[in-house]
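Internal ticket - ligand job 334, MRU:
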Amino acid sequence: MEAIRWEHDSLYLLDQTCLPAVERWLRYTDYREVAQAIKTMVVRGAPAIGIAAAYATVLAARENCCKADFPAAMSRAKEVLAASRPTAVNLFWALNRMERCWQTFGLARLEAEALAIHSEDIQMNEAMGKAGAELVPNGARILTHCNAGALATGGYGTALGVIRTAHAQGKVSMVYADETRPLLQGARLTAYELVRDDIPVTLICDNMAGYLMAQGQVDLVIAGCDRMAANGDFANKIGTYALAVLAKHHGIPFYTALPSSTIDLSIPDGSHIPVEQRSGEEVSCFAGVQTGPVGVRTWNPAFDVTPHELLTAAITERGILRPPFDQKLACQFV
Ligand code: MRU
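stdout (structure tokens):
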């Protein structure tokens, strides 16, 4: 399964706002429209928005290649794309890598660089799948949150990549997918991916996870990651922190799976991660129907930050990192 394609000089995105009811691909030839697609979550998930931004940089270069002020035009395009979503560092990582590419090699290499970012991401997911599956016991019942699957990446997935590999090894007896309010990435996207792949999945509301753990029904939790700071604190979809606290209380291992493009060693800890605030309507409405009183105050952070103390291990393409995370991250990801 894939959500991003580059064909005939155009970017195609599977519109994730309509899934699972409607599978429709949208075509993009203008980088500004790609920025809008990232903002409105046609494409979402940390690695996927980095990949989309890389292809958008190719579109910007095509548009501006004949202009005398090409560098200034490219800086403006980068600013527009960088302003689309603030939390996942993959977006900025990809934009910086594309900028270094055109500054060093000119335009000729840009398309190849975007394609490389895309294919490297799939390879990293497969490597994480292999490494992470070692942590999965036979007959495992795994809880996951939001969507860290093929749809959120170049393909295969980070947390769902681990689950896919462990399932292929016959070790998964059940995946519990949190629905993930307010935008339901767990219900709409994770459950959809797992049903399509014939991996056993049970959909639960977010507020059921604690009781599920108390019933002894969860052997491990695996979530994705949008940005990991130098000390191992990490941002992921709102609700991840609560799951980590619950897992600690119940003595359940709690893992995050992330490629190196999600690690931000420039910030010392999670307090420096910018957390996106989204429209209150996502909270006061459900599927377009007003569920709270009109005019009610809302609070809608799209992510939260889980302190590294709650993390059992981080699954990366270079293997499993256990505490102390600051030393391991500094050694392996400089
Ligand atoms: O707001 P979203 O849907 O972009 O949030 C996505 C997540 O929080 C994922 O868990 C994260 O990006 C990791 S995806 C491999």
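Auto-summary: The two ends are 32 Å apart (CA to CA). The first helix runs from residue 31 to 39.
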